[in-house]
Amino acid sequence: MVEQACRELARLHVDRRETLVAIGGGALTDAAGFIAASYLRGVPIVQVPTTLVGQIDAALGGKTAVDLPEGKNLVGAFHQPVAFVADVSLLATLPPRQLRAALGEAVKMGVLGDERLLELIEEDGEAMARGDRQTFESGSLAEVVERCAWAKVEVVSADERESGPRMTLNLGHTIGHGIEAAAGYSKILHGEAVAYGLRGAFAIARALDITTPERAARVNALLDRLGLGIAPPAVSMESVAEHMATDKKHALGRLSWVLPTATGVIVRADVPADAVAAGIAAALRLAPVTTTAEVPVRP
Ligand SMILES: NC(=O)c1ccc[n+]([C@@H]2O[C@H](COP(=O)([O-])OP(=O)(O)OC[C@H]3O[C@@H](n4cnc5c(N)ncnc54)[C@H](O)[C@@H]3O)[C@@H](O)[C@H]2O)c1
Ligand SMILES: [Zn+2]
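ok -> structure tokens follow
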């Protein structure tokens, strides 16, 4: 598709001053962004995401990429859009599963430190997940989109290339990516995997006493109500751990973990293997989600 689209641009004699407009979900805006980064070594692009994932995450931040049979996002570039337009009314036709899954990513943005965002999702998240009209009319869905989008813009503006603060956006993604990869990227949507990963990150943070039992209970209860990360996914602990070990975000062979505190997150590179195992077990719902007692440690 990328080759075909680039050839079409060439056929139309599109020159470097002309702006591309990408209208679609994250798969499309990622590919269009890559085309914009590459065609004539870079043309401007306006991103118009039409999915909740696109509006709160994928179309923002300038990471563009396409997948190869060998792996996800292996060919890409950093290319910031000249403008970003999120029209929440477009989300009215999204399948409810897509809406629900994207809320996993919205919960993550709240856990990074936006109290109001967490409250909004606590109040209205179940209705948003159902695609309830009232969440469009009241403006609560729009506020979720706006808060998530601005939070991402702020983090990315401070650290475009992910040398520091941008890494915090990976909260829930270390185990989440492991689950997605272990499931072959087919049965589990990204936001659903992130929800499992969030539960795992909270279990690790509890095991290391980084977060409070109240914070962990609150976020796990919110995910319960949203219907996210509930049933144990059909993947083994071993295969999740294996796929985590090949994750491209390894810093010097050692996994850096973004872990929740009582109000935000910290990055730790010294998480012991037993805590990681407890985290994966909790993410896969093999161990009870521990709220007040310590997380059981599995070898
Ligand atoms: N670049 C980044 O920083 C970043 C961040 C997160 C995700 N992503 C990427 O985004 C992709 C996932 O994006 P997504 O969740 O938007 O999925 P998607 O692009 O696959 O879209 C999901 C489905 O919804 C359909 N659709 C799109 N808009 C619609 C609408 N308004 N009404 C009805 N149907 C609609 C699409 O045709 C598709 O079938 C993944 O490839 C992921 O890697 C990128
Ligand atoms: Zn994500």
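The first strand starts at residue 20 and ends at 24.
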